Protein backbone atom coordinates (compact mmCIF):
# COMPACT_ATOMS: atom_id res chain seq x y z
CA UNK A 1 0.00 0.00 0.00
CA UNK A 2 1.27 3.50 -0.80
CA UNK A 3 -0.18 6.98 -0.87
CA UNK A 4 0.57 9.96 -3.05
CA UNK A 5 1.40 13.63 -2.46
CA UNK A 6 1.61 13.90 1.34
CA UNK A 7 0.54 12.43 4.65
CA UNK A 8 -1.13 15.75 5.51
CA UNK A 9 -4.84 15.32 4.89
CA UNK A 10 -7.35 18.19 5.11
CA UNK A 11 -10.57 17.18 6.84
CA UNK A 12 -12.67 19.85 5.13
CA UNK A 13 -12.74 21.89 1.93
CA UNK A 14 -12.17 25.64 2.11
CA UNK A 15 -14.86 26.78 -0.31
CA UNK A 16 -14.07 30.46 0.21
CA UNK A 17 -10.45 30.32 -0.85
CA UNK A 18 -9.25 32.39 -3.78
CA UNK A 19 -6.37 30.00 -4.40
CA UNK A 20 -6.70 27.73 -7.37
CA UNK A 21 -8.74 24.69 -6.37
CA UNK A 22 -6.26 22.17 -4.89
CA UNK A 23 -8.96 19.50 -4.54
CA UNK A 24 -9.31 18.83 -8.27
CA UNK A 25 -6.73 16.03 -7.92
CA UNK A 26 -8.21 13.91 -5.10
CA UNK A 27 -6.05 12.48 -2.38
CA UNK A 28 -5.55 8.82 -3.26
CA UNK A 29 -4.17 5.59 -1.81
CA UNK A 30 -2.95 2.80 -4.08
CA UNK A 31 -2.53 -0.93 -3.48
CA UNK A 32 -0.46 -3.68 -5.06
CA UNK A 33 -2.54 -6.86 -5.24
CA UNK A 34 -0.41 -10.03 -5.06
CA UNK A 35 -1.80 -13.51 -4.21
CA UNK A 36 -0.56 -15.31 -1.11
CA UNK A 37 1.34 -18.58 -1.39
CA UNK A 38 -1.17 -21.33 -2.18
CA UNK A 39 -3.29 -19.07 -4.40
CA UNK A 40 -2.84 -18.15 -8.02
CA UNK A 41 -5.62 -15.67 -8.74
CA UNK A 42 -7.21 -12.95 -6.61
CA UNK A 43 -10.59 -11.54 -7.53
CA UNK A 44 -11.21 -8.22 -5.78
CA UNK A 45 -14.86 -7.48 -4.94
CA UNK A 46 -14.79 -4.34 -2.78
CA UNK A 47 -12.41 -1.78 -1.36
CA UNK A 48 -13.52 0.48 1.49
CA UNK A 49 -11.90 3.07 3.76
CA UNK A 50 -13.26 3.63 7.26
CA UNK A 51 -12.47 5.64 10.34
CA UNK A 52 -10.91 3.83 13.30
CA UNK A 53 -14.42 3.52 14.78
CA UNK A 54 -15.79 1.87 11.65
CA UNK A 55 -17.60 4.75 9.95
CA UNK A 56 -17.41 4.33 6.19
CA UNK A 57 -15.65 7.20 4.42
CA UNK A 58 -15.61 5.77 0.91
CA UNK A 59 -16.02 2.43 -0.84
CA UNK A 60 -16.04 1.07 -4.37
CA UNK A 61 -16.82 -2.15 -6.23
CA UNK A 62 -15.77 -0.85 -9.62
CA UNK A 63 -12.17 -1.39 -10.72
CA UNK A 64 -10.33 -1.08 -14.03
CA UNK A 65 -9.08 -4.56 -13.25
CA UNK A 66 -10.36 -6.88 -10.55
CA UNK A 67 -8.51 -10.13 -11.32
CA UNK A 68 -4.87 -10.34 -10.29
CA UNK A 69 -2.09 -12.91 -10.44
CA UNK A 70 1.69 -13.00 -10.12
CA UNK A 71 1.91 -12.31 -13.84
CA UNK A 72 -0.77 -9.62 -14.11
CA UNK A 73 0.17 -6.74 -16.38
CA UNK A 74 -1.54 -4.39 -13.94
CA UNK A 75 -1.40 -5.18 -10.25
CA UNK A 76 -2.13 -1.77 -8.75
CA UNK A 77 -5.51 -0.33 -7.83
CA UNK A 78 -6.28 3.11 -6.47
CA UNK A 79 -8.90 4.48 -4.10
CA UNK A 80 -9.55 8.20 -4.15
CA UNK A 81 -10.90 9.97 -1.09
CA UNK A 82 -13.32 12.85 -1.40
CA UNK A 83 -12.58 15.46 1.26
CA UNK A 84 -16.30 16.13 1.78
CA UNK A 85 -16.73 12.45 2.67
CA UNK A 86 -14.05 12.87 5.35
CA UNK A 87 -15.97 15.82 6.79
CA UNK A 88 -19.18 13.78 6.91
CA UNK A 89 -17.52 10.72 8.43
CA UNK A 90 -15.72 12.55 11.24
CA UNK A 91 -18.46 15.09 11.90
CA UNK A 92 -18.42 18.88 11.97
CA UNK A 93 -17.56 19.10 15.68
CA UNK A 94 -14.46 16.91 15.28
CA UNK A 95 -13.36 18.85 12.19
CA UNK A 96 -13.82 22.17 13.99
CA UNK A 97 -12.19 21.17 17.29
CA UNK A 98 -8.78 20.11 16.02
CA UNK A 99 -8.62 17.63 18.91
CA UNK A 100 -6.64 14.83 17.21
CA UNK A 101 -3.01 15.12 16.14
CA UNK A 102 -3.27 11.93 14.08
CA UNK A 103 -6.09 9.87 12.64
CA UNK A 104 -6.02 6.27 11.46
CA UNK A 105 -7.67 5.28 8.20
CA UNK A 106 -8.72 1.63 7.89
CA UNK A 107 -8.61 0.15 4.37
CA UNK A 108 -10.62 -3.06 3.92
CA UNK A 109 -10.22 -5.24 0.84
CA UNK A 110 -12.60 -8.18 0.25
CA UNK A 111 -12.67 -10.77 -2.52
CA UNK A 112 -12.04 -14.40 -3.49
CA UNK A 113 -8.91 -16.47 -4.14
CA UNK A 114 -8.59 -19.12 -6.89
CA UNK A 115 -6.09 -21.80 -7.84
CA UNK A 116 -4.29 -21.91 -11.20
CA UNK A 117 -7.18 -23.88 -12.76
CA UNK A 118 -9.77 -21.29 -11.74
CA UNK A 119 -11.20 -23.23 -8.81
CA UNK A 120 -12.39 -21.09 -5.91
CA UNK A 121 -10.31 -21.55 -2.78
CA UNK A 122 -11.92 -19.17 -0.30
CA UNK A 123 -13.30 -15.71 0.30
CA UNK A 124 -10.95 -13.30 2.03
CA UNK A 125 -10.98 -9.97 3.85
CA UNK A 126 -7.85 -8.07 4.76
CA UNK A 127 -7.28 -4.72 6.44
CA UNK A 128 -4.49 -2.19 6.19
CA UNK A 129 -4.04 0.84 8.44
CA UNK A 130 -2.68 4.22 7.48
CA UNK A 131 -1.88 6.92 10.06
CA UNK A 132 -2.12 10.45 8.67
CA UNK A 133 -1.76 13.95 10.09
CA UNK A 134 -5.09 15.77 9.84
CA UNK A 135 -5.10 19.38 8.69
CA UNK A 136 -7.80 21.57 10.21
CA UNK A 137 -9.11 24.70 8.54
CA UNK A 138 -8.68 27.74 10.81
CA UNK A 139 -11.38 29.55 8.85
CA UNK A 140 -13.97 27.44 10.66
CA UNK A 141 -13.10 29.23 13.92
CA UNK A 142 -14.35 32.60 12.62
CA UNK A 143 -11.09 34.29 13.55
CA UNK A 144 -10.78 37.75 11.93
CA UNK A 145 -8.55 37.44 8.88
CA UNK A 146 -6.40 39.96 7.06
CA UNK A 147 -4.75 39.96 3.67
CA UNK A 148 -5.62 37.68 0.82
CA UNK A 149 -5.81 35.14 -0.58
CA UNK A 150 -5.53 33.06 2.58
CA UNK A 151 -5.03 29.36 3.29
CA UNK A 152 -5.54 28.49 6.96
CA UNK A 153 -4.81 24.75 7.22
CA UNK A 154 -2.85 23.64 10.27
CA UNK A 155 -2.03 20.73 12.54
CA UNK A 156 -4.09 20.05 15.64
CA UNK A 157 -1.83 21.71 18.23
CA UNK A 158 -1.65 24.97 16.27
CA UNK A 159 -5.38 24.83 15.59
CA UNK A 160 -6.03 24.52 19.33
CA UNK A 161 -3.66 27.41 20.00
CA UNK A 162 -5.55 29.57 17.50
CA UNK A 163 -8.79 28.72 19.30
CA UNK A 164 -7.26 29.80 22.62
CA UNK A 165 -5.94 33.05 21.16
CA UNK A 166 -9.24 33.84 19.43
CA UNK A 167 -11.17 33.12 22.62
CA UNK A 168 -8.99 35.39 24.77
CA UNK A 169 -8.22 38.23 22.35
CA UNK A 170 -11.52 38.50 20.50
CA UNK A 171 -14.44 37.01 22.45
CA UNK A 172 -14.22 36.68 26.25
CA UNK A 173 -11.24 38.98 26.83
CA UNK A 174 -9.75 38.30 30.31
CA UNK A 175 -8.55 41.11 32.62
CA UNK A 176 -4.86 40.71 31.63
CA UNK A 177 -5.84 41.55 28.05
CA UNK A 178 -8.40 44.24 28.80
CA UNK A 179 -6.97 47.60 27.79
CA UNK A 180 -6.78 50.10 30.65
CA UNK A 181 -8.44 53.44 30.09
CA UNK A 182 -5.07 55.05 29.33
CA UNK A 183 -4.65 52.80 26.26
CA UNK A 184 -8.19 52.85 24.90
CA UNK A 185 -7.45 55.84 22.64
CA UNK A 186 -4.51 56.65 20.39
CA UNK A 187 -3.71 59.61 18.13
CA UNK A 188 -5.43 59.01 14.80
CA UNK A 189 -3.23 58.61 11.75
CA UNK A 190 -5.62 60.18 9.28
CA UNK A 191 -6.49 63.17 11.47
CA UNK A 192 -3.90 65.23 13.32
CA UNK A 193 -6.21 66.53 16.02
CA UNK A 194 -8.45 63.63 17.10
CA UNK A 195 -8.05 60.30 18.83
CA UNK A 196 -9.13 56.88 17.58
CA UNK A 197 -10.23 53.80 19.48
CA UNK A 198 -7.67 51.04 19.98
CA UNK A 199 -8.33 47.37 20.63
CA UNK A 200 -6.16 44.36 21.32
CA UNK A 201 -8.07 42.11 18.93
CA UNK A 202 -6.12 39.40 17.11
CA UNK A 203 -6.27 38.76 13.36
CA UNK A 204 -4.70 35.88 11.43
CA UNK A 205 -3.29 35.37 7.98
CA UNK A 206 -1.71 32.37 6.25
CA UNK A 207 -1.00 28.99 7.85
CA UNK A 208 -0.38 26.14 5.36
CA UNK A 209 -1.87 24.89 2.13
CA UNK A 210 -4.49 22.09 2.33
CA UNK A 211 -1.99 19.31 1.61
CA UNK A 212 1.10 21.04 2.99
CA UNK A 213 4.15 21.38 0.75
CA UNK A 214 5.76 24.61 -0.49
CA UNK A 215 3.75 27.77 0.11
CA UNK A 216 5.25 30.46 -2.11
CA UNK A 217 5.86 33.63 -0.16
CA UNK A 218 5.89 31.64 3.11
CA UNK A 219 9.04 29.57 3.26
CA UNK A 220 8.30 28.01 6.67
CA UNK A 221 4.57 27.43 6.14
CA UNK A 222 4.74 23.88 4.79
CA UNK A 223 3.90 21.54 7.67
CA UNK A 224 0.91 23.07 9.48
CA UNK A 225 2.95 24.44 12.39
CA UNK A 226 3.25 28.07 11.27
CA UNK A 227 0.85 31.00 11.23
CA UNK A 228 0.93 34.79 10.81
CA UNK A 229 -0.93 37.02 13.27
CA UNK A 230 -1.28 40.66 14.23
CA UNK A 231 -2.90 42.58 17.08
CA UNK A 232 -5.24 45.55 17.45
CA UNK A 233 -6.56 46.34 13.98
CA UNK A 234 -7.45 49.82 15.17
CA UNK A 235 -3.95 51.06 14.35
CA UNK A 236 -4.55 50.81 10.62
CA UNK A 237 -1.35 51.72 8.81
CA UNK A 238 0.75 50.86 11.85
CA UNK A 239 0.76 47.30 10.59
CA UNK A 240 0.48 48.20 6.92
CA UNK A 241 2.79 46.99 4.19
CA UNK A 242 4.07 48.98 1.23
CA UNK A 243 4.65 46.82 -1.81
CA UNK A 244 6.48 47.60 -5.04
CA UNK A 245 4.12 48.71 -7.77
CA UNK A 246 4.89 45.69 -9.93
CA UNK A 247 2.99 42.46 -10.56
CA UNK A 248 4.13 39.32 -8.74
CA UNK A 249 6.48 36.86 -10.44
CA UNK A 250 4.86 34.33 -12.74
CA UNK A 251 5.31 31.55 -10.20
CA UNK A 252 3.14 33.48 -7.74
CA UNK A 253 0.24 34.22 -10.02
CA UNK A 254 -1.65 31.09 -9.04
CA UNK A 255 -2.17 32.59 -5.59
CA UNK A 256 -4.18 35.51 -6.89
CA UNK A 257 -7.40 35.91 -8.83
CA UNK A 258 -6.47 36.95 -12.34
CA UNK A 259 -2.81 37.04 -11.36
CA UNK A 260 -3.19 40.56 -9.89
CA UNK A 261 -1.64 41.61 -6.62
CA UNK A 262 -4.12 43.65 -4.59
CA UNK A 263 -3.61 45.68 -1.44
CA UNK A 264 -3.70 43.79 1.84
CA UNK A 265 -6.85 44.30 3.87
CA UNK A 266 -7.09 45.76 6.47
CA UNK A 267 -3.50 46.77 5.77
CA UNK A 268 -4.99 48.87 3.00
CA UNK A 269 -7.92 50.61 4.66
CA UNK A 270 -10.03 52.50 2.08
CA UNK A 271 -10.43 55.35 4.56
CA UNK A 272 -6.64 55.69 4.71
CA UNK A 273 -5.94 55.61 0.98
CA UNK A 274 -4.24 59.01 0.84
CA UNK A 275 -2.31 58.44 4.08
CA UNK A 276 -1.17 55.05 2.81
CA UNK A 277 0.07 56.54 -0.47
CA UNK A 278 1.94 59.34 1.31
CA UNK A 279 3.51 56.93 3.79
CA UNK A 280 4.78 54.64 1.06
CA UNK A 281 6.14 57.56 -0.97
CA UNK A 282 8.15 58.72 2.03
CA UNK A 283 10.14 55.52 2.36
CA UNK A 284 10.37 53.95 -1.07
CA UNK A 285 13.96 54.22 -2.20
CA UNK A 286 14.10 50.71 -3.63
CA UNK A 287 11.79 48.01 -4.91
CA UNK A 288 11.61 45.97 -1.71
CA UNK A 289 8.48 45.38 0.32
CA UNK A 290 8.38 47.46 3.51
CA UNK A 291 6.45 46.15 6.49
CA UNK A 292 5.01 48.13 9.43
CA UNK A 293 5.06 51.35 7.48
CA UNK A 294 3.49 53.89 9.86
CA UNK A 295 5.38 52.56 12.88
CA UNK A 296 8.59 53.04 10.95
CA UNK A 297 7.59 56.59 10.04
CA UNK A 298 6.67 57.53 13.62
CA UNK A 299 10.10 56.43 14.81
CA UNK A 300 11.68 58.26 11.86
CA UNK A 301 9.87 61.46 12.89
CA UNK A 302 11.16 61.07 16.44
CA UNK A 303 14.74 60.65 15.19
CA UNK A 304 14.40 63.62 12.84
CA UNK A 305 13.40 65.71 15.88
CA UNK A 306 16.40 64.37 17.79
CA UNK A 307 18.79 65.50 15.06
CA UNK A 308 17.72 69.06 15.94
CA UNK A 309 16.85 68.72 19.62
CA UNK A 310 19.41 66.67 21.47
CA UNK A 311 19.25 66.03 25.22
CA UNK A 312 20.78 69.30 26.30
CA UNK A 313 18.17 71.47 24.55
CA UNK A 314 15.14 69.18 24.30
CA UNK A 315 13.23 71.16 26.94
CA UNK A 316 13.67 74.49 25.19
CA UNK A 317 10.50 76.09 23.92
CA UNK A 318 11.67 75.82 20.33
CA UNK A 319 12.11 72.04 20.70
CA UNK A 320 8.82 71.62 22.53
CA UNK A 321 7.07 73.40 19.68
CA UNK A 322 8.30 70.89 17.09
CA UNK A 323 8.28 67.75 19.25
CA UNK A 324 6.35 64.96 17.42
CA UNK A 325 4.13 64.27 20.42
CA UNK A 326 1.43 62.41 18.52
CA UNK A 327 3.92 60.09 16.84
CA UNK A 328 5.73 59.44 20.13
CA UNK A 329 2.46 58.81 21.95
CA UNK A 330 1.25 56.41 19.28
CA UNK A 331 4.48 54.43 19.34
CA UNK A 332 4.61 54.30 23.15
CA UNK A 333 1.07 52.93 23.30
CA UNK A 334 1.93 50.37 20.65
CA UNK A 335 4.79 49.18 22.89
CA UNK A 336 2.47 48.95 25.89
CA UNK A 337 -0.27 47.04 24.05
CA UNK A 338 2.20 44.58 22.54
CA UNK A 339 3.81 43.99 25.91
CA UNK A 340 0.40 43.11 27.32
CA UNK A 341 -0.28 40.74 24.43
CA UNK A 342 3.07 38.96 24.48
CA UNK A 343 3.17 38.74 28.26
CA UNK A 344 -0.12 36.83 28.11
CA UNK A 345 1.07 34.69 25.19
CA UNK A 346 4.34 33.83 26.95
CA UNK A 347 2.43 32.64 30.02
CA UNK A 348 -0.39 30.80 28.24
CA UNK A 349 0.94 29.28 25.00
CA UNK A 350 3.68 26.83 25.96
CA UNK A 351 5.28 25.05 23.03
CA UNK A 352 4.99 27.94 20.58
CA UNK A 353 7.07 31.01 19.90
CA UNK A 354 6.52 34.28 18.07
CA UNK A 355 9.03 35.61 15.56
CA UNK A 356 9.44 39.36 15.27
CA UNK A 357 11.92 41.52 13.39
CA UNK A 358 14.59 43.03 15.61
CA UNK A 359 14.98 46.12 13.45
CA UNK A 360 18.15 45.08 11.70
CA UNK A 361 17.05 45.15 8.08
CA UNK A 362 17.93 46.74 4.76
CA UNK A 363 14.63 48.51 4.15
CA UNK A 364 14.67 51.14 6.87
CA UNK A 365 15.24 54.81 6.11
CA UNK A 366 16.25 56.30 9.47
CA UNK A 367 18.58 59.29 9.79
CA UNK A 368 22.22 58.34 10.15
CA UNK A 369 23.05 57.73 13.82
CA UNK A 370 25.84 60.32 13.79
CA UNK A 371 23.21 62.97 13.16
CA UNK A 372 21.18 61.77 16.16
CA UNK A 373 23.82 60.73 18.69
CA UNK A 374 27.01 62.77 18.93
CA UNK A 375 30.07 60.52 18.99
CA UNK A 376 28.05 57.28 19.04
CA UNK A 377 29.87 54.21 20.35
CA UNK A 378 29.81 50.79 18.70
CA UNK A 379 27.30 49.59 21.31
CA UNK A 380 25.05 52.56 20.65
CA UNK A 381 25.23 51.93 16.91
CA UNK A 382 24.17 48.31 17.40
CA UNK A 383 21.24 49.28 19.60
CA UNK A 384 20.27 51.92 17.06
CA UNK A 385 19.95 49.19 14.44
CA UNK A 386 17.95 46.97 16.81
CA UNK A 387 15.30 49.65 17.35
CA UNK A 388 12.31 47.29 17.34
CA UNK A 389 13.78 44.96 19.95
CA UNK A 390 14.98 47.78 22.19
CA UNK A 391 11.60 49.47 22.19
CA UNK A 392 9.66 46.38 23.28
CA UNK A 393 12.22 44.82 25.60
CA UNK A 394 13.99 47.80 27.14
CA UNK A 395 11.54 50.66 26.57
CA UNK A 396 14.02 52.81 24.67
CA UNK A 397 14.10 54.77 21.45
CA UNK A 398 16.82 53.91 18.88
CA UNK A 399 19.05 56.66 20.28
CA UNK A 400 18.88 55.13 23.77
CA UNK A 401 16.49 57.65 25.31
CA UNK A 402 13.77 56.27 27.57
CA UNK A 403 10.29 56.07 26.02
CA UNK A 404 7.98 58.25 28.05
CA UNK A 405 4.77 56.83 29.46
CA UNK A 406 1.95 58.63 27.60
CA UNK A 407 -0.08 58.95 30.82
CA UNK A 408 2.62 61.21 32.24
CA UNK A 409 3.91 58.84 34.94
CA UNK A 410 7.58 58.54 34.14
CA UNK A 411 8.94 56.17 31.50
CA UNK A 412 7.84 52.75 30.22
CA UNK A 413 10.89 51.05 31.69
CA UNK A 414 12.33 47.63 30.92
CA UNK A 415 10.34 44.50 30.10
CA UNK A 416 13.36 42.21 29.87
CA UNK A 417 12.60 39.00 31.76
CA UNK A 418 16.32 38.72 32.58
CA UNK A 419 16.41 42.19 34.09
CA UNK A 420 16.71 41.84 37.90
CA UNK A 421 14.53 44.93 38.33
CA UNK A 422 11.58 43.34 36.55
CA UNK A 423 9.69 40.26 37.69
CA UNK A 424 7.99 37.88 35.29
CA UNK A 425 4.69 38.76 36.97
CA UNK A 426 5.09 42.31 35.68
CA UNK A 427 6.19 41.60 32.13
CA UNK A 428 7.56 38.48 30.47
CA UNK A 429 7.80 38.56 26.69
CA UNK A 430 10.38 35.80 26.41
CA UNK A 431 8.22 33.89 23.90
CA UNK A 432 9.33 36.43 21.29
CA UNK A 433 12.19 35.39 19.04
CA UNK A 434 13.78 38.50 17.56
CA UNK A 435 15.44 37.97 14.19
CA UNK A 436 16.96 39.83 11.25
CA UNK A 437 13.87 39.00 9.21
CA UNK A 438 12.81 42.13 7.32
CA UNK A 439 9.07 41.49 7.12
CA UNK A 440 7.80 40.98 10.66
CA UNK A 441 7.29 44.50 11.95
CA UNK A 442 3.57 44.83 11.23
CA UNK A 443 2.70 41.16 11.77
CA UNK A 444 4.28 38.29 13.65
CA UNK A 445 5.08 34.69 12.84
CA UNK A 446 3.84 31.88 15.11
CA UNK A 447 6.00 28.75 15.12
CA UNK A 448 6.33 25.57 17.14
CA UNK A 449 9.21 26.03 19.58
CA UNK A 450 9.21 22.53 21.11
CA UNK A 451 7.26 19.30 21.13
CA UNK A 452 3.75 19.86 22.46
Largest sheet: 7 strands, mixed
Helix content: 10-25%
Q: Please report which band the strand proportion falls in: under 5%, 5-15%, 15-25%, 25-35%, 35-45% or over 45%.
A: 15-25%
Question: Helix-strand pattern, N to C?
Answer: EEEEEEEHHEEEHEEEEEHEHHHEHHHEE
Rg measurement, Å? 28 Å
Q: State the separation between the terminal residues, measured CA to CA.
A: 30 Å
Description:
There is one protein chain. With 452 residues, the protein is α+β, with helices and mostly antiparallel strands. It has 10 helices and 19 strands. It has helices spanning 83-90, 92-97, 156-171, 273-283, 293-308, 317-322, 325-348, 369-372, 378-385, 387-394; strands spanning 2-3, 8-10, 27-32, 41-50, 56-60, 67-69, 76-81, 103-114, 120-137, 153-154, 185-187, 195-197, 202-204, 226-231, 241-242, 290-291, 352-357, 432-435, 444-448. Strand 11 and strand 12 form a beta hairpin. It is elongated.
Write the topology of this structure.
Elements: E1 2-3, E2 8-10, E3 27-32, E4 41-50, E5 56-60, E6 67-69, E7 76-81, H1 83-90, H2 92-97, E8 103-114, E9 120-137, E10 153-154, H3 156-171, E11 185-187, E12 195-197, E13 202-204, E14 226-231, E15 241-242, H4 273-283, E16 290-291, H5 293-308, H6 317-322, H7 325-348, E17 352-357, H8 369-372, H9 378-385, H10 387-394, E18 432-435, E19 444-448
Parallel strand pairs: 2-9, 17-18
Antiparallel strand pairs: 1-3, 3-7, 4-5, 4-6, 4-8, 8-9, 9-10, 11-12, 13-14, 14-19, 15-16, 17-19
Helix pairs in contact: 5-7
Amino acid sequence: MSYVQTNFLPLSVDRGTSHKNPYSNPWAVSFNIIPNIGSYWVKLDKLAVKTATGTIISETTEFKQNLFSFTSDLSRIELTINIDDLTSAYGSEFVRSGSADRVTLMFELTGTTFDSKGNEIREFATTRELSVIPFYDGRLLDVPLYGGPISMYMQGSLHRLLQIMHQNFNTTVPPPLTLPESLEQFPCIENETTDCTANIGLSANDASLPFGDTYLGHQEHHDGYNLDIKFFGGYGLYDGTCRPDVPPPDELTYLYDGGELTEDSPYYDPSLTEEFARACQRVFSNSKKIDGIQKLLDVTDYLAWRTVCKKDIENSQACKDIKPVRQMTRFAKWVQINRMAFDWLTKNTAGFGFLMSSGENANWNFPDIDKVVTGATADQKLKYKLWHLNALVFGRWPDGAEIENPNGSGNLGSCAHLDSRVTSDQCDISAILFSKNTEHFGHFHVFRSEEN
